[in-house]
Write a structure and sequence with these properties.
325 residues; alpha+beta; three-stranded antiparallel sheet; 8 helices; 9 strands; 19% strand; extended
């Protein structure tokens, strides 16, 4: 079995009393097409390479390092004993006057996109009063496991099409084509359009919309999953103490009555609902994270919620400082 490039490089450097250094220096691209970039340092040489996974990126950077060490005269074994291949030229920036416009119809580019061209195109249209870009799904083909979508981006008489295996990527590619065309043909008008500033404005608007539509208690993103059941501990400690005492005094004969009285002490409410299929649910609100206690009967759901509430209040004895926003 042929040894991997990383193994060959490790053995080669070990013979000279050194070890190669690897580091993942970058991660780019959309979630469905992430690229990792690795850096390798060995024998005074620094090389970088990318791959779809960290493992592939590490192997590729090791291969490039072996090619460079071969040029230094080191005894690199076959098949890595060859000069390094020249790096492919970087694609031109969409904001550069030398950038070439993409064709009106075609397949999404395979290169990793750093910018959100949908956001950039929108900011460009806003700044120069170009109108609103309309996006439409005009093609949806292929088997369920391998769909191929075609998105049309239209601004007035200007239309661009792009295809990809996801709607999001096809939309971005169509927006990139239209954005590139406008930057080229409105070069004199848009020469002061700054990409970084446009993306910053788009981000600010997105955050404003997020804040405006955000309702209910804010979740604690740092909370451990193992502590999800103590969500009510964000309540005042004195109220927790009174509620715990009240629960100890009441019997378990009427779970709903106990829930309502204890929750009233905690400034919470008990909400019951029925899901499709007849599943009964009990929600204790507000709590964060919000949990739903379910059973096939109302009594079972109430008992489940009561067990949760008792466990949460009991937990406060051993974790008095725990709190969940």
């Amino acid at each position: 079995m042929e040894k991997t490039a990383a193994t060959v490089l490790q053995e080669l450097m070990t013979k000279s009393g050194k070890i190669p250094e690897y580091e993942c220096v970058a991660k780019s691209g959309p979630q469905h097409s992430v690229k990792f970039e690795y850096r390798c340092i060995a024998n005074g040489v620094i090389v970088k390479a990318k791959g779809k996974t960290k493992k592939l990126a590490k192997q590729e950077v090791a291969r490039k390092m072996l090619n460079n060490l071969f040029l230094q005269g080191m005894p690199v074994p076959h098949p890595y004993a060859r000069p390094p291949s020249p790096d492919p030229p970087s694609p031109p920036s969409p904001a550069s006057p030398s950038a070439k416009a993409l064709p009106s119809a075609g397949v999404a580019s395979a290169s990793v996109e750093v910018n959100s061209y949908v956001a950039l195109l929108k900011e460009l249209c806003i700044e120069y009063n170009l109108g609103t870009v309309e996006y439409d799904l005009v093609g949806d083909a292929g088997p369920p496991h391998q769909r191929w979508f075609t998105i049309k981006a239209q601004l007035g008489p200007h239309v661009r099409l792009a295809s990809s295996n996801t709607k999001k990527q096809a939309r971005q590619s169509a927006a990139e084509q239209l954005y590139t065309y406008l930057r080229e043909n409105l070069a004199r008008l848009t020469k002061d359009f700054v990409v970084d500033e446009a993306l910053a404005r788009a981000h600010e608007r997105a955050m404003e919309r997020y804040v405006e539509t955000r309702t209910g208690p804010r979740l604690d993103l740092g909370q451990k999953i193992s502590e999800y059941h103590i969500g009510v501990l964000s309540i005042d400690v004195e109220k927790i103490s009174k509620a715990r005492t009240l629960m100890e005094e009441l019997s378990d004969e009427n779970a709903l009555e106990i829930l309502e009285r204890v929750c009233a002490e905690l400034d919470m409410s008990v909400n019951e609902l029925v899901l499709d299929g007849g599943v009964r649910c009990v929600c204790l609100e507000p709590s964060s994270p919000q949990l739903v206690h379910a059973d096939v009967t109302p009594e079972g759901a109430r008992a489940c919620a009561l067990r949760y509430l008792r466990a949460a209040l009991q937990r406060s004895l051993t974790h008095p400082t725990a709190s969940v926003p």
